[in-house]
Design goal:
- The structure holds two protein chains of two kinds.
- Chain A is α/β, with parallel strands linked by helices.
- Chain A is built from 14 helices and 14 strands.
- Helices cover 39% and strands 17% of the residues of chain A.
- Chain A has a seven-stranded parallel β-sheet with strand order 10-11-9-8-12-13-14, sandwiched between helices. In chain A, strands 4-3-5-6 form a four-stranded parallel β-sheet, with helices on both faces. In chain A, strands 2-1-7 form a three-stranded antiparallel β-sheet.
- Chain B is mostly beta strands.
- Chain B contains two helices and eight strands.
- The radius of gyration of chain B is 18 Å and the shape is globular.
- The chains are: A alpha/beta, B mainly beta.
């Protein structure tokens, strides 16, 4: 064993490292989503599905994002095997998803509802395949992986005043430490960087990266303005405002603490696109929690740390989501959803550094297999970001 | 208070009027009830002046704010993403984003409507 921090993970044929070993059941289209969910449920909790509302009636970039997000999940290191559930006449191509999974060394099969002859036969065949895959994956063992193999998704939601003072700076310290050790972290939610972009742009390692960040923020702000609407209708959210947050700038400055204070900004990538560089990456995701987590996991994050003030249950179908709160009341009232309570920071009975030590240790334990509250509760929320209306 | 540049601080507990707070060697008298998690003005802030927290502006005062007053949506307003202002006949256009020196790849300034006219 090395002296460097690390975790017990699944080393994949493509060289990536997983923190889970799921049989992923992927519907190509909304029409095959229910069958996919039933097949996954029959092999739960190893079996997990990504039911979604798209896959047809989509054009251009909107179609591309759906296809690429589903493909990214098929290639993800937390997935050991894939069952693609097609209808037969949709736009998303089942064979393309299966080929992606195979290229990354996964076991894979396609079942198609029109070809198999209906819901019952498809569910039955898919269940048999998923069970067989689950049996094969059960023989695989975890091995020691260096911390530099970790890609951590940084997320906050249901924020209140404790988020910017306790949970986000705690996570920021973990981010700085992870990045110094050669690992990767990804920050999403462009609307929640608005007002704090100067902080991140100043840490960009290349001028082009800073430019890309500002360009994406400008686009989101322009989109909001072009609707002729006041972004205050959604940012901050009504709950944020009750919690004492007044403006998007204030929310963003607190939220951006998740990205640490020193970690250099190495890259800015599109929704669900591969997180290819070590260090801190910003991903172009919307501010809706589930769409944002879905994109960052698609990019390759194997663990999500989700800070919350007011409390939120969100999970993910293939990645553990670890909940941290700095609000003592939330830690008590939503105890079943919270993994780590750092509220002692608020009355100075714990330092940010001590809380960060605990979170850092928990991230590695969860990466090594300990199930999070969201996993135990079966929270597997999944939503692909839509760029255009359905045609 | 988080940064020495801040002109507001976050109340960690309910603050009642007339309470005297010792902050940075000075005394601040609370002017009105402030719920936990909400902001209190550390000094007088003129209408239109930036409100500063985390060492950065979090918006502009939409009314004059007295030292010790509650700072929230009634007297502090964001200047970002405000399509309602950009399109209103009387409202001011939202300020432009700061742009980096290297403008390569930028799609152009975000624009108040008069620039399109």
């Amino acid at each position: 064993m090395s002296e460097r921090p690390g975790f017990m993970g699944y080393r994949r044929p493509d060289g990536r490292v997983g923190t889970r070993n799921h049989v992923l059941v992927v519907p190509t289209v909304i029409c095959s989503s229910l069958v996919a969910e039933r097949i996954a449920a029959a092999a739960a909790p190893v079996g997990t599905a990504v039911p979604h509302l798209a896959g047809c009636g989509q054009l251009g970039p909107d179609m591309r994002v759906t296809h690429e997000t589903l493909a990214a999940y098929c290639a993800h290191p937390n997935v050991g095997a894939v069952v693609v559930v097609a209808l037969g006449c949709e736009q998303v191509i089942a064979q393309h998803l299966a080929d992606t999974a195979r290229r990354h060394g996964k076991l894979v099969e396609i079942v198609a509802i029109q070809a198999e002859g209906g819901t019952v036969r498809t569910t039955e065949k898919g269940t048999r395949i998923a069970q067989g895959f689950a049996g094969a994956l059960a023989t695989e063992e975890r091995e020691w992986c260096d911390i530099s193999e970790l890609v951590l998704s940084l997320k906050c939601g249901g924020s209140d005043y404790t988020s910017g003072l306790a949970s986000n700076p705690t996570l920021g310290r973990v981010t700085d430490r992870l990045v110094e050790l050669g690992g990767s972290a990804v920050l999403g939610e462009i609307a929640e960087i608005m007002g704090a972009e100067h902080v991140l742009a100043a840490r960009a390692t290349r001028p082009a990266t800073a430019t890309k960040l500002i360009r994406i923020i400008t686009r989101v702000e322009t989109e909001a303005r072009s609707l002729g609407l006041d972004i205050r209708g959604t940012q901050p959210s009504p709950g944020n405002i009750r919690g004492g947050l007044t403006t998007i700038e204030e929310k963003s400055l607190g939220a951006t603490h998740k990205g640490g204070e020193r970690a250099p900004l190495e890259d800015v990538v599109a929704y669900a696109a591969p997180i290819a560089r070590k260090g801190l990456t910003v991903m172009d995701t919307p501010g809706l929690d589930v769409e944002s987590v879905t994109g960052m996991v698609g990019g390759g994050a194997q663990v999500v740390v989700f800070t919350t003030g007011l409390g939120t249950p969100t999970g993910n179908p293939i990645a553990p989501v670890l909940k941290v709160t700095g609000n003592a009341r939330t830690a008590r009232q939503m105890a079943d959803n919270i993994d780590l309570d750092v509220s002692a920071i608020m009355d100075d009975s714990e330092t940010l550094d001590a809380a960060a030590d605990r979170l850092f240790a928990d991230v590695l334990t969860v990466a090594s297999g300990r199930r999070t509250a969201a996993e135990r509760l079966g929270h597997r929320e999944f939503a692909i970001h839509r760029r255009n209306p359905t045609i | 208070m988080i940064s020495s540049r801040d002109n507001v601080a976050t109340a960690l507990e309910q603050l009642e009027p007339e309470r005297r707070l010792q902050i940075d060697g000075g005394t601040l008298v609370v002017r009105e009830a402030i719920p936990p998690g909400h902001k209190i003005a550390l000094q007088a802030i003129a209408a239109g002046a930036p409100v500063v927290k985390y060492g950065s502006p979090i918006g502009l005062a939409s009314a004059a704010i007295a030292a010790g007053a509650h700072v929230h949506t009634h007297n502090l307003s964001s200047s970002r993403g405000r399509g309602d202002l950009a399109h209103s006949a009387t409202g001011e256009p939202a300020p432009r984003l700061a742009e980096p020196d290297d403008r390569g790849g930028l799609v152009g300034p975000v624009t108040p409507s008069k620039e399109r006219a």
